[in-house]
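queue> holo job accepted (manganese (II) ion)
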Amino acid sequence: MKIIVLGSSAGGGFPQWNCNCSNCDRMRRGTLKAKARTQSSIAVSADGENWLLINASPDILAQIRATPALQPGRQPRDSGIAAVLLIDAQVDHVTGLLMLREGKPIPLYCTASVWDDLTTGLPLVPVLSHYCGVQWHPLPIRQNHMEPIELAGIDGIRITPLALLSKAPPYSPHRENPHPGDNIGLMIENRATGKKVFYAPGLGEIEPHVEAAMRSADCLLVDGTFWSADEMIRLGFSTKYAADMGHLPQSGPGGMIECLDSMDAGRKILIHINNTNPILDEDSEQHATLLRHGIEIAHDGMEITL
Ligand code: MLT
Ligand code: MN
Ligand code: ZN
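queue> job finished
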């Protein structure tokens, strides 16, 4: 089973179009040792031919161009993307669906909450019905037990969706009124080897069922949005703490580093990294701290084989 990180950044990408934070500014000037990153998405396949696109980023066209496996030449019009799965209805995870409109009807796996947002507040589904159309496959929500499902056309892989505490998008009626299924994490398992990766780019709180899932995973690909809880406030960009946006920061007591330190997974990787996060600066103390803790930082094009 192979996982390709198509986009390792949070919403806005890195550098962000209008941002002059120290990272974005220095990146544009060429004085920062860092990699540019596109918005949040991964692709997974067991046969190397049929890929499950997990989240459809606004940067999807550039991501497909950079990923030959997603653009096979088997017929006059072709794609390696056999199905799409959404973990929430955030703008950075769903707007790329519009870019797939020239293709066949899109097999779309998402929860009822996400489907609701995409048929009302951000009506991508009704819009797409005038182009390729979308075939919805409702994802069940698990809280207290693991029951993997198989996805049509994606052989060799089993997926368990897990309800998470994070945040529905700002436009959603669920933003301040959370429902199970607004945000999910995924256990993705290679059926042949039993190896598992836990993927959760938006993880606001590590509840017991999430911790149990993380403990049983061979690889963790988890929320790397913010280094500190008040990162956006200190920079004057927002009045919201990381938790208000559904993200657990890396530093501090109860933070992601502490959590990952207590886990035995063979690989621990942060993904969905906001452009303000000091870990993007490869010369920073924070970057070095992660490496000392055995934590990797996802980058676009990163491949994970399990
Ligand atoms: C988030 O996860 O909080 C986002 O990256 C928000 C966004 O897409 O604007
Ligand atoms: Mn996001
Ligand atoms: Zn920035």
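queue> The radius of gyration is 18 Å.
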